[in-house]
Amino acid sequence: MLRRLPGDEARNLVSTTPDTAVVFRPAVMQTPAIVTIVIWLARLLRGLIRTLWRHPIACTAALAPVVVTLTYGWRMAVVLAGFLPALGLSWVLLERDSFLRVVGWPLLAWWRLVWVYRRHWQPVMIVSGLGRHLRGRDYLPRLVKVRCTSWADLVTVKMLNGQAVKDWTDRADHLAHGFGARSCRVSIARAGRLVLTLPRHDPLAEPLPAVPIPEVASVGAVEIGRCEDGTPYRLKVHGTHVLIAGATGAGKGSYLWSAIRGLLPAMRAGLVQVWALDPKRMELSFGRALFGPRYAATPAECADLLEAAVAVMQERADRFGGNQRSHTPTVADPFVLVVVDEVAFLTAYQSDKGLRERTKAALATLTTQGRAVGVGVMAALQDPRKEVMNIRNLFPDKIALRLDESEQVDMVLGDGARDRGALADHISPVPELGAGVGYVRLETSPDPIRVRAAYVSDEDIRTMVAIFSTGRAGAHARG
Ligand SMILES: Nc1ncnc2c1ncn2[C@@H]1O[C@H](COP(=O)(O)OP(=O)(O)OP(=O)(O)O)[C@@H](O)[C@H]1O
């Protein structure tokens, strides 16, 4: 008690047992001044060593002028003060990335630590309920360190003993606005430690032009757009099935077309076939020449085409059985990607029950058995409810674009995805800002990542058709 209560507060604490006149008053011992001074000096020393250890660059920048002045006189300090900015400027101009990595981001991190996070830590923790103020003392989670990247602050915190990750994910909004960020994503660093990702600006706010068509035929992961950290976003299509959910105008088309664009050289080489189901006739019909006879628009044609894909799948399964367990695309056995725009129209909205059941059965068969024999499904839909799409869990990879309701996020990405920062219901409905922006949760990681697909314009699709039919890849590859 003596250690925990500041000043003489302990002296005023009295307690009684109920219904008696017995009074307990704690004994207060005066600590000798020398002990207090030694403790404060030890703390000061510890603080200094910790600051030097954690912020070597900032400390060097602050101490160097003093050391130079004391050692070589003030003239040398002035000469260096004029020389160093020129050196720094040359470094920035010649090697910007290394300058930012070594000097820029650590300095910014130090500034943000002092000016934003330390300054607001106590009030934000207390008001959000993540810290407690008990009997004159603050019990706060520990702010361990701040790192800066080009677009976000990564704040490592040590939770209070007894706190759960959910306590933090539930307060992501408090944290974001408390520290002046648009959003806050919570991920686990290790037991008891979390990393809060607080964006300083949105690197995906500008639409991206279509990704150049690859030079080489490949069935590997296709570049679709960009991730929030600026790295290319590559979507695996071979050996999986992909479901893309988003409200009308969310930009589902740009995912379908970017995937087809990335596969174009492989389509020309005969290693990939794209089978297109276009019940709305507004999306895939634009590049119809790419699909040849494997294009369907009416519900009956769609059911027939899906059953044809099932037949290919079963024929391959019979042939491969006992010989090979995975598929390598060849001209004889190309990778078949069945692309379905607005799959709910076929599985829920169409009136013909017979066709509906045939479609559902074929889709379920393809998504459960297709990936090992080189048949994949990439489907887009607006409404992710189970009544509309009861096989959504058969798609290993899912992408949530702008959604109308917060509950729909977990329906698409799985339980807890929204708590972990997949705020698909907050994506802007303004096409320039939000179309093509989405959250992806990969099989290997529970933390959703924010991405934006490149926009494939009508002109880009026309170019793709020209390349595919005339073979002028080189002329248009960067088009
Ligand atoms: N990746 C993108 N980047 C920027 N703008 C985009 C992107 N994708 C689409 N848009 C814009 O948003 C509009 C709607 O896109 P799109 O038709 O692909 O949405 P959708 O989700 O397929 O909608 P619907 O379900 O109604 O067909 C496009 O006309 C375009 O202007």
Automatic annotation (TrEMBL):
ATP binds at residues 246-253. The chain crosses the membrane at residues 27-45, 76-94, 99-117. One of its GO terms (molecular function) is ATP binding. Pfam families: FtsK_SpoIIIE (PF01580). PROSITE patterns: FTSK (PS50901). GO terms for biological process: cell division. This is Cell division protein FtsK.
